[in-house]
Structure formats: C-alpha cells, structure tokens
Prior knowledge:
- The complex is a heterodimer.
- Chain A is of the alpha+beta class.
- Chain A has helices spanning 2-16, 159-166, 313-327, 334-347, 352-382, 396-414, 438-452, 460-467, 472-495, 508-536, 540-562, 568-591, 620-628, 643-653, 656-664, 679-687, 716-726, and strands spanning 19-21, 24-30, 40-49, 54-61, 68-72, 77-79, 88-90, 97-101, 103-112, 119-132, 136-149, 178-182, 190-197, 210-215, 221-231, 238-245, 253-262, 265-276, 615-617, 633-638, 668-673, 695-699, 708-709.
- Chain A has a seven-stranded mixed sheet with strand order 14-17-18-12-13-16-15.
- In chain A, strand 1 and strand 2 (24-30) form a beta hairpin.
- In chain A, helix 3 crosses helix 9 (472-495), helix 4 packs antiparallel against helix 10 (508-536) and helix 5 (352-382) crosses helix 7.
- The two termini of chain B are 33 Å apart.
- The model of chain B is unreliable at 1-24 (pLDDT under 50).
- By secondary structure, chain B is an alpha+beta fold.
- In chain B, the strands form two sheets. Chain B has a seven-stranded mixed sheet with strand order 2-1-5-4-3-7-8, with helices on one face. A two-stranded antiparallel ribbon of chain B has the order 6-9.
Amino acid sequence: MRRIGTILAGLFCLAALAAHAAHTQVQLILSADPAQPGDTIWVGVDMKMEPDWHTYWKNPGAAGLATKIEWDLPPGVTAGEIQWPLPEKLPPVEVTTYGYNDEVVLLVPLKLDADLPRGPLDLKAKVSWLECKEQCVPGSAEVAATLNVGTETKPSDDAATIELWKSKTPQTNNGLSFSAWWAKPPDGDTRSLFIGSQPKKTDKNLKYDAVDFFPYASDDFEVQAATEILSADSANFRLSKVVKKYSGDWPKEISGVMVMEIGNLRTGFEVKLPVSDQAPVGAQAPGSEAVSAAPTTLPAAIAAAPALPAQPLWRMLLYAFIGGLILNIMPCVLPVIALKILGFVGESRSDPRHVRTLGLVYALGVLVSFLALAAVIIGVKAAGRHAGWGMQFGSPVFVVCLTTLVTLVALNLFGVFEVTLGGRALGTAGGLASKHGAPGAFFNGVLATALATPCTAPFLSIALGFAFAQKAPVIVLMFLAVGTGLAAPYVALSWNPAWLKFLPKPGAWMEKFKIAMGFPMLATAVWLFDLAAGSYGKSVLWLGIFLVIVAFAAWIFGEFVQRGRARKGLALVIVLILLVGGYAFALENQLQWRQPMTAPDATGSLKESADGIDWQRWSPEAVAAAQAAGQPVLVDFTADWCLTCQVNKKTSIEIPAVRARLKSLNAVALLGDYTRFPDNITTELNRFNRAGVPLVLIYPKDPAASPMVLPEILTPGIVLAALDRANR
Amino acid sequence: MRLIITFMKTTLALFTALTLASAALAVEVGKPAPDFTGTDINGKTIKLSDYKGKIVVIESYNSDCPFCHNQYATGATQDLQKELAAKGVVWLMVNSVNPNNFSHRTPEQARQEWTSEKIAATAWIDDSSGAIGHLYDMKTTPHTFVIDKNGVLVYDGAMDNQPDPSHDPRTARNYVREAVDALLAGKPVEVSQTKPYGCGVKYAD
C-alpha cells in the first residue's frame, strides 16, 4: 500500500514537474484559481531558457522561429491571441533577431463560458519553439494545468508573475502619436522609411535613452532591424528604417511596436502606422507649447500613470476648477462644509443682498488663501527650492497652530464658546443661525483652504502637477482656478437662495446638528495631532496638555465672559493667564515647539509589521553601500501628509509580491521620510527634478547604471517590472 | 592636427568608396549575380562565372540548423537536387559557418556528411571566412538563390513557404523548383523574392 502511495506521489510529482526539453523549460501558470464561469483569466506559458539560449518573438526577425502554442482545451474554454512581452534585439547585427533571453512568459487570455459547469478543468497545450545559442534546436513540450471552476475567483500564486509579464507587453493606448513616411523614392527593392513622434503630443523636455521600432512580420516586405536615430534629444524623435520589399506594392501601412527606453525602463506601444509619401506637417519643428517636465522622469503614458501629455492651459485651468469643486467633498474639507450649511440655513431668511455679500466674502477668503499659497510656492521656487502641494504640513509650527485652531473650531461647534468675529456676537443656540459676520465668512474660506491642502482630488493632481512646473503667472492662475472651484458652490448658492428651499427651516435641530458636526472637526484635530507627533515624538503629550488648557480657557471664556453675569473681568484675566501660562509652560518650556526634534539618526529597521518590508533609513551613504555590495536598492521618499504616497504604499509597495521580490533579489529598501522637509531629501528630490514626494527610485544592482525613476502613481506591475530590471 | 584631418579625410573617402563598391556588388533580383571564387570540400576551385550558360542554384547550408536538417533528413532537398541535376542545373551549397562554431565542418567531416546524407549537389563550397555569404547577404540557413543562364539573379529568398523545422518539405510550395521550371519553360519567374527563414548564418564575429 505504501509503495503504491509512493508511486502515485512520484507520478504526481512527474505530472507537476514542468515539461523539460532541451535547453528550455516550459510550464503553464494561471492568473486565477479558482475562477468562475464567465471570467476571462490569463494563462502564461512560462519559458525558462538556459544561460545564453534564447527563444523568439512573434516576428523572429532575420532568422529564428516564433514560439507556437497549440491549445487542447475543454469545451466552453476559448484561448485568445498570444500577448508577447517586449523582446530584445539579438545579435549578430547582420542577422538581427527579436527574442528572449533567460525567461519569457507568453500570455494568453482564456475565456470561460458563462454556462461552464463547476469542477476542475484540464488545460493542455503543446508548445513548440526554436531555441538557439550557437546552434539552434527545435523544442516542444506538452504542458498542462488544472483550473478549478467554482463560485469565486481568487488570484493564484502566480498572479504576481503574470502581472509582471503583462506589464512588459506593449500598450495599445498611449496618448503619444507616431507617423511614418517614405524618406525617398525606392532604391530597387529597398526604400528608406522615417518614423517620427508627433511633437504636439509629446514632452519636449523628455529624453529617451533609446527609441526603436520592432516590426511585425509580413510576407510581402520586411522592415529591417537596423535603426538609425536621426534625432532623439527630445520626445520629438525621428528614426530611419529600411524596408525591403519581396512582392507586391510598397506597403501602405506598417505595424509593430514602438520601443522607448528611459534609464532601464523600457516600454512598448503597439502601433499601426499608415505610410505616407510626405512628412507630416510640423514634423520638423519641435513642440513649442509642450509641458515642461523633469527630463529623467517617465512620461505618464509610458508608465501607465494618468496621462500628462502637453495640454493647453485652458484645459489645465478647467481641471484645476473641477479639482477645486471636488475638493469640497474630500474628507479634509468636509468639516468646513458643515459650518457652511449651518451658515446658509441661518442666512436663508436674511437680506438676500447680505447673503450674496457673504458668499463673495467666503470666496474671497478662499482666493486670498490660495493667492498666499501661490506666493509661498513662487517664493520657495525662486529661492531655488522645490515646492509641493501641502508642503506647509511639513512645518511642525504650522501643524501645531492648525491643531489648536481646529480644536477651537470643534469646541465652538460644541457650544463651549461663541465666536464674535466682526463685533456681531453670535448668541447661544440661534446665534450661529442669525447673521454671519463678513469676517466669519472670510475665516471660513481661509479654514477651508488650509484644510484642503493635504487632500488632492481627481483632476486636481493633474492640474497641480502641471502648475508646479510653470512660471509664476501660470501658478497664480492655476491656484485661483482651484480656489474658484472650491468656492463656486457657495457663491452659486448664495446668489440663488431659492435653491436652499430643500433645507429645513432654522430651529432647534440646528443646535444638535452643530454639535454633531463638531465631531468630524475633532477627528481632524486628532489627525493633525498625529502629524505633530511625528515631529515631537513622545513630548507631543505637552501639545495635548496645551490643548486641554486651551479648551478649559475656552470654556471659562464662553461660560463666564460671554454668558456670565458678574466678574467678567476676572474671568477674562483667568482665561489670559491660562492661555499665556499654558503656552509658556506646555509649548515653550516642555514641548519646545519651535525646535522640533530632528529625525532620529538611528539606522534601525523601520519595519511596519513583522512580515513587512525591512525598511532602513535613507541616506546617500546607505545607497552607496548597498550598491557597492551589488544589491539593488528600492528608495521610497514619502511623507505622512502625502496621501498619494500612502496610497502607493498600500497598493503597490508594502504588498506580498513586492516583499517577496525584494527578498529574492536580496534588495535593500530605504525609506526617506519627507514629512518634515529635511534638507538632504530636498536636495535629493531636486537632483531628480521633483517638486516633492512621492518619489520612488530603484537603483539597479549594477552600480554604473542610473537609477530608475518610477511614476508618481504606482501599480504593482510597475514596481515588479522595475525590480526585475534592476536585477539584470 | 593637419595629419589627423588628412587621415580622417582619407578614411572617410575610403569608407565611401567601399560602401559604393559594396552597393554596386549587392545582390539584386534582375541584376547580374556577383561572381565569386571558392574552394569545395574536395579542394576543387569553384568559380560562378564558369557556369555561364547554365542555371545555377545557390543554397546556404548548415546541417546543424533544424531547418536545413529537416530539408535533408526528409530527403526532400536531395530529391530536388537530383531532379534539377537531370535538367542540367548546377547546385552550389555554401557553408559559411565560422571555424570556431560547433557547427563548423572540416573538409573531411564535410565529405563524411556528403556521403551519409546522400547529398546530390554539384559542390559544397567551404566558405568559413563568410566571404560568399556576405557577398550574397545570406541571412539564414537555408537561404536560396537562382541564377539564369545569362548570370542574372532571378530568385532570392526562402527555399519554400513552410518556415517550420518539423513538417515534410515536400508538402510545401518550393520556390526554387518553381523558379527553375519557369526559366526552363521560358516563362517569367512568378515569385522572385521572399523573406528567407531559418537559423542565422553563423558568421565569424
């Protein structure tokens, strides 16, 4: 019995063993298991070649043979076309071929019919290929995998591998545009062809380290492998290829993959280009209105990040406006909305002219704040430093002030004290509902802006990315557009109070609503407090004590100064003593709030959880040390207040696939904390022409190679692909 | 300094001249096929122009290449060689594998292969220098050429339309036979150029 067991186990092992033939090992991997009927999953033919052996792309080039997959699938399962990862150009020059060294995963979409019965499915394929080193050997293998069809879809263990190779396949929609035209009349059977990028859609500051065109095969002609780069100093490049005709007319269209390389990152775009007889209009002139961007960063399109091609200013202003509008419903600004709603309810019955004025004053508060922000950013830029959205949150002093302010706003909403801006005392319950002073409205505008800045919204990130790279007048315009968007709903409402009819009439509910709205404000205060904790460590306790003293003072102020009957003067003195004493003792003496701690110098691990990435603190020396040891390096410049950084970390960095890849590559992970704008990181960011975080770099294992700059918005595929390249 | 400029000028002129010369020599269908002289595996001198008046087939050859191997292992090419020889056609095999490559054949090894594979060509030219291969811009093994009785190149490309190292070549459309038959029948060659397939020719680096 045991022997039978052993034999069976052996058989299973054999079945599980990847088919091995000659110098290439092949196995089938699945993106999902189990999967549900109706799903389309990816199946990968994973080919591992022995060192120096290669297999071929769909167009093998001057010699070689494309790998073939013949499927043997159960009914109800349909295989689509092979998605080919970008190949390499393989020597020798006189017989250039396109193929893969080391490993390739050919990807095929597998469609499962909706009425597929549940249960295990045997997926089989016969893979045949030509493998070459100094000689060529045909190989073939029967490979199989079992897919369980069930009631749920789960990524398989190989999902990350498939994701990685998917990121190496050419993209179809790129936002870049290319054209092809004949360079001159035919010379016998050969004819020169130009392929150029359209200047208007590209970034004039972008430098490609290499551009090439890998053609698809045709029976009637061949686009030869040799590529002459005519101009590649910008994204507006042009290259020349030779077309050799075998039969028929000169091709009217060529198809293939445009391959672009920046640093060690290579991306392909599938193209089908009509070949015209003349150069396209404007092909000679470099784009004049192109967006200026950092020369070493990838174009947005290359990294599948939101596109940031050259855009007309009006469109960017529109984005800024829409972004500002959306900011209103982002969590940062939400608490201020509560204030505004209360204000409107109260105002809805007063003089319409007054209401309009208040709406405009609120807008003015927002716009003035945005102008101030713009001025700061222009100033910072003029001082040779790089500015960033939300950069004021890097200043602990600002954070302490804002925490105090927001705490006070929350206390005010709780009714602990009233705000008497503009000399108009707001009475108790109905007070807020009566008349909002103009300074109150203005203050609301300022508060909305101050709270809005750590949030970015859809559209806003694109607009800001554009704005930060511009000259002063454009920055001002862009910021005003965001401010206008933020203020627009209130201005519109204040000019059309009739729209507010859906709101209930002022009454006792407002008092309850006001108190309820104090809680989101309190939550904001807690978030700010947490930010402050980063700058003050354990001493942040003293900020808490200060806030309690302030709260106590606010209560005495409200209860005995504003609402009290006698000894108002004494109460006011006590309030002042509390505030001054609390400030002097808690903030100045204990917290030493104007001298926040510098980042601890300890070099220990910054691991977030037991199985998390083993982050070490970033320093130029740490990078150099790891490179000297021949290790690839992942650097994440991040900040607590940078929401994009946090999203990147959650979705694409601190994830099992990346952890595993870092481990298997023996890579070093370095964390650069930009929460408090340390100078050495500012310098490093400047070196990469970045306005701020996020900045994620991957240094290849080869110390001579330049680091890869990952796009601002990451996907797991981008990170894994870059890590993979770093190991070359 | 002047010396350097002179040197550069000379180099440039030489380079231009060489480029022009090679362009003039380049193989092109419809033009005279460039002449060459080589030594076959029996030490005999083979000169293309000696075969003027006869139809000549040139085939780049490397039997370690699965595509060539398939052509010969199935006997398809030997059959074609015999068939065309009966019609008075000359068949020259050109082996341009460099001497450092595993697939290189010494004349003795080549003679053994000739016998064991029952090769029926006119001659097997040892082109380990790659001179003839480069002259004809041979890309792959097999890469075939057909030259008419006047020495004009009439076909340049693949042996057949089946770029596959495992199927029987006799089921494929053989472009060499087609071209030769057209010439013999006095008709124009229908397919005069195709993309050669196969393994890259193993030239010296």
